[in-house]
Write the structure tokens for this entry.
Amino acid sequence: LIFSGHLLLADSGRCFVEPGVLRIEEGRIAEIQLGEIATRPDVGGNLCLIAPGFVDTHLHLPQFDCIGSHGSPLLDWLDAVVLPTESRWVDSTLAQAKTERAIHRMLRSGTTGFAAYATVHHHSAVAALELAQQRGVRAWIGQTLMDVPKDAPLRMETNRLLDETHRSLELFPSGGRVAAAITPRYALGCSEQLMKGCAKLAQETNALVQTHLAENVDECAAVFERFGKEYLEVYDSMGLVRSGTIFGHGIHLGEAAMMRLAESSSIVAHCPTANDFLNSGIMRREALTRAQVQISLGSDIGAGYEVSMVRVARAMIQAAVRLGTSFPDASEAFFAITSGNAQSLGWNDSGQLLEGAIADLVVIQPFENWLATTVDPLSQLLFSWNDCWIRSVWLRGRRVV
Ligand SMILES: [Zn+2]
């Protein structure tokens, strides 16, 4: 299968566009030729941009159903909006149908890989993993673990949660295209025993660990009140601050926490649309970058309201501009949602148009003469992005949209 057009290539943290041809064989990019667009490709053409599939490093599958409930801060929103939505996932048939719709919406927006939270229900998390496998996306999905306070909704017994996570990790081991993630939801919902158990499972299996960190001021205060420690110190004392752990948000962090995140090679998943929606604050991108913390990008559906990772990337730029600090440009933004996010999830053969990489691809046909603008074409695409431009989406060389 021959794809040809303007290829979105990556180098040293930036993306750029160059005409060229991709030959796809057995789900991978077998060969790349740069310089010219083929006259009669199977897919693409003179007007097309061919990009690696976009990757989302933080989202909640059940929360596609509660996007847009506006006006309350994090902890109130969790109680009033999220818990009722997630409690419906007690029904695994419903969970599977909802996962199907969520994946469909992501694919329509060009997202071919993601790391997601399911709910506390084991059978529904497994149903979501199975569905993702059937649909062919690349994904980490975790049963969302909460065991305290014991009388609150969606809490389950600690050992049961650890046993169930262990079982998911056996069914969907890391290294698979779809794999189970270890997902203690946040410090306020987890006992010490649960968090330490998660750290032990991470050590044994090398699965991705994902959780939330310092999203909201009241949340940070409640964590300090319960544990007598700063937020990251709590996770650190449980063994969860480790290479590759994805910490959602990381907005309210001191210098010591940033240094610890950098030194441990942990990752902060920046979720600018969600942070704006819940008025949680703005992640200090420049300070984290200066401290050499690795940053990925996430939609955080459903506090986040944009499924499109291009729009999330745009929000990342706007958030940094609002802080009055240095900000990434469009070429860095496109890198973030492709190669950068793929690497953050441990996928070195995704997110890039490279020989040998998996052929998860998005074919985009923007407006006429999109390369002949008076500004940087990637910047114009980013800021005027429209999902209607997506002509087709491919998973392992197979057309799915
Ligand atoms: Zn989240």
